[in-house]
Design a protein that fits this description.
The chain is of the alpha/beta class and 401 residues long. It is 44% helix and 17% strand. Helix 1 crosses helix 14. The two termini are 19 Å apart.
């Protein structure tokens, strides 16, 4: 598509480098294919250490990776101030070298609106890409509210106030933008995160990951405070020792701040031979691991954040035809439907029971996997999100005119 005037976009993301951040990369490349000129500001990290490069027509500007905060107001302030300083610095560079008409800010944190505010007087519009509900994320991490929680609500409200258009990852987030953010419904678009089915293909995988087990469970994602890995380890112990399912193995793909704690928990329970921790895997390496497993597990506990969040891992399992076991979460059901079994909220014993049922009913498990992939192909894949992404951009450029 060719536009009369250049449509120049600056995407800003703080928590992952690009192209590692899959959602941001799909957005950037989809916009480029549609005729937009796209630049990205993001941190370095996870092997992406070049300060400046162009990939697939996307101009990428990276700043030194901040120390990720996991607790304490001072640590978070240090991380966010470091990121914001570099975002403002690099925005001046992008403005000079390529220009931009729209700033596309991806949270967390809910502070990137400050950059949008800075350039508003120059006619630049702000589009908010709502990845996480930060107040609920804070509550899930620290199991409390208080002053910092209220500050998060203020930042969120200011973000929506500055945004001309908002993009939500699911309907629950859209309702937050309308209800709590006071945005007009016609300015909020649902752009679901989902794999690109052309490259995310089922296959045999690397059988070495199975360690000779008859049934293998797989986990992919962040290993942090709110992902429920403690519940998964408890479920594994119950599955093996109480339900006598000993011919099993768990493949854990990912990185995060509590990885060593989870390893220690596994060792403390004498379950080391049942677990493989691969560390971070990407691209074909990740597919080789996930395709080797039989059941995808998503142990994210039910809380204010997880209940309304779409878990990328669930979408990935479904795309690879894996039946899923997860806790009973609102958006988890919206994503997986009948392709998943749902354990009682935060109950590792019931989680183990659901895994055992899939082990004992392989034909039904296989059918659930096929239903999951078909569900992605029919309604949930990235190709279904692209029209909404382009509609959101058409709206924000209309407002600019």
């Amino acid at each position: 598509m060719q536009f009369k005037d250049p449509r120049r976009v600056l995407i800003v993301v703080e928590n992952l480098p690009v192209p590692l951040d899959r959602r941001v990369w799909l957005e950037a490349t989809s916009l480029t294919e549609a005729g937009y000129q796209v630049s990205v500001i993001c941190p370095m990290g996870r092997g992406w250490t070049k300060a400046r490069e162009e990939i697939d027509g996307v101009q990428i500007y990276r700043y030194p990776e901040p120390v990720e905060a996991h607790s304490g107001a001072v640590a978070y302030a240090r991380e966010y101030l470091h990121a914001l300083w570099h975002m403002f610095r690099l925005a001046r560079v992008v403005r000079r070298e390529h220009g931009f008409d729209v700033i596309h800010g991806c949270n967390p944190p809910d502070l990137i609106f400050l950059l949008g505010l800075r350039y508003r007087m120059s006619g630049v519009r702000y589009l908010f890409d709502h990845h996480d509900v930060c107040p609920e994320l804070f509550e899930a991490k620290f199991n409390k509210r208080g002053l910092l929680y209220r500050i998060m609500l203020i930042w969120e409200r200011m973000t929506f106030a500055v945004a001309d258009v908002s993009m939500a990852t699911n309907e629950s987030f859209r309702q937050i933008a309308i209800r709590r953010g006071k945005m007009q419904p016609e300015d909020v678009f649902v752009i679901r995160s989902a794999p690109k089915v052309e490259t995310f293909l089922p296959g045999p995988g690397n059988r070495d990951y199975r360690r000779g087990a008859s049934t293998v469970m797989g986990y992919v994602g962040v290993i942090g405070q709110q992902e429920g890995m403690d519940l998964l380890v408890q479920a594994a112990e119950h599955l093996i020792r109480k339900l006598d399912k000993r011919d099993v193995h768990f493949v854990i793909v990912g990185f995060g701040p509590t990885l060593e704690e989870v390893r220690a928990d596994v060792a403390g329970r004498g379950l080391e031979r049942y677990f493989t921790f691969t560390g971070a895997l990407f691209g074909d390496d990740m597919l080789a691991a996930l395709n080797a497993v039989d059941i995808g597990v998503s142990p994210d506990p039910k809380n204010a954040m997880n209940d309304i969040s779409t878990m990328n891992k669930v979408m990935e399992y479904m795309t690879l035809e894996k039946p899923v076991v997860q806790f009973d979460l609102t958006e988890g059901r919206a994503s997986a439907g009948d392709a998943s079994l749902y354990a009682r909220a935060n109950d590792p014993v019931d989680f183990a029971t659901k895994i055992a049922w899939l082990i004992d009913n392989p034909a039904e498990a296989q059918q659930m996997g096929k239903m999951g992939r078909q569900r992605v192909l029919d309604t949930l894949s990235w190709q279904h999100s692209v029209p909404q992404l382009l509609a959101a951009y058409a709206r924000v450029f209309d407002k600019r005119r």
